[in-house]
Amino acid sequence: MTLQQLKYVVKVAEKSSINEAAKELLISQPSLSSAIIELEKEIHITIFIRNNRGVSVTNEGMEFLGYARQVLTQSELLESKYINNTKIKQRFCVSTQHYTFAANAFVELVKEFGIDEYEFTLNETTTYQIIEDVKTMFSEMGIIYLSDYNENVIRKILKENNLVYTELFTAKPHIFICNQHPLANKKEVQLEDLKDYPCIWYSQGKNNSFYFSEEILSTRTVSKSIKVSDRAAVVNFLIGLNGYTISSGVFPKYLHGDDIISLPLNVDEKIQIGIIVHKDTVLSELGKIYTQELRQYAKYA
Fold first, then answer.
1. How far is CA 264 from CA 179, 190, 195, 224, 232, in A?
2. What ranges in the chain are assigned the alpha helix state H?
3. Between β-strands 141-146 and 271-278, what pairing exists: parallel, antiparallel or unpaired?
4. What is the CB neighbour count within 10 angstroms for residue 127?
5. Within a 13 Å sphere around the CA of 84, how many CA atoms are in the beta-carbon half?
6. The whole model's pTM is what?
7. What SS3 class is residue 216?
8. Domains along the sequence of the chain with CATH
9. pLDDT in tens, the chain (301 residues)
10. N or C: which end of the chain has fewer CB within 10 A?
């Protein structure tokens, strides 16, 4: 196994095409195919499945690519420090459920530690995809929550995928609503108070299991329900439709200034927010710093 072969498989995965990867790598398509086949024989797994539309990565291949990316990153660091004597572009990627504090902590990280060249990624996505991203080491870490309802199932899935969960903080459930909402003057909200208003949920796409929901009480029946995929749409619906969404209540002003408020929800539930990492991954310095930034929000819980 060589670094060149690792570069080849990573590029093919990026392009989803051996032909396109060969063009960018400036080698012939047969040479690239042969190099990949030799690597697959050596490591005794199939990395890519070939089809008429290009290639797709197998489950085993996804895990291998995660390790390959780590090796290539470390190789680049060594070359830049000891051979080229240049600074390497900083790279950091995190996948997360839709939390404003996660985005805010990311901003602080970039402001303080972004140098002249960097490639930082904040991927707000579904719970299933977060687990996949960390499993394959596409992301250095993921941010998810656990509750009494989903904890056993999620922990089982994490264990099966060689992932480790570490708690950041535990928060009491709140609702987000606009400051003109009929419930805005209440000090605490009951579930019964919410029955006439649209409930806003984050869509989990094709992996729409109750256990993957970003919101507690995901099995509760509501008469009005709207599913969205981004935080901007949530704000629009909270303001325009007197909707509500259930979350941790942590740092709500970052959503939309004073237009959005949070109120405690009187339910016997908890929201435990934490990070997940691959068991074979050692957090980078940026990962450690970002984790510390996240922990700052425990005081808002």
1. 14, 9, 16, 21, 22
2. 3-15, 18-25, 29-43, 59-82, 100-113, 127-135, 151-160, 231-240, 253-256, 285-295
3. antiparallel
4. 24
5. 9
6. 0.76
7. coil
8. 3-82 (1.10.10.10), 171-271 (3.40.190.10)
9. 888 989 898 888 888 888 888 898 899 988 998 999 999 999 999 998 888 778 888 888 888 888 888 788 778 767 766 676 666 667 789 999 999 889 889 988 888 776 667 788 999 999 999 998 998 888 999 999 999 999 999 999 999 988 999 999 999 999 999 999 999 999 999 999 999 999 999 998 887 788 999 999 888 889 999 999 887 888 889 989 999 999 887 865 544 467 888 899 999 999 999 999 988 778 888 899 999 999 988 777 6
10. N
For residue 129, which of 56, 207, 62, 60 has the smallest C-alpha distance? 207
Q: Label the pairing between strands 174-178 and 245-247.
A: antiparallel
Place of tokens 């708690």: 167
Pick from 282, 284, 281, 293: nearest CA to 92: 284
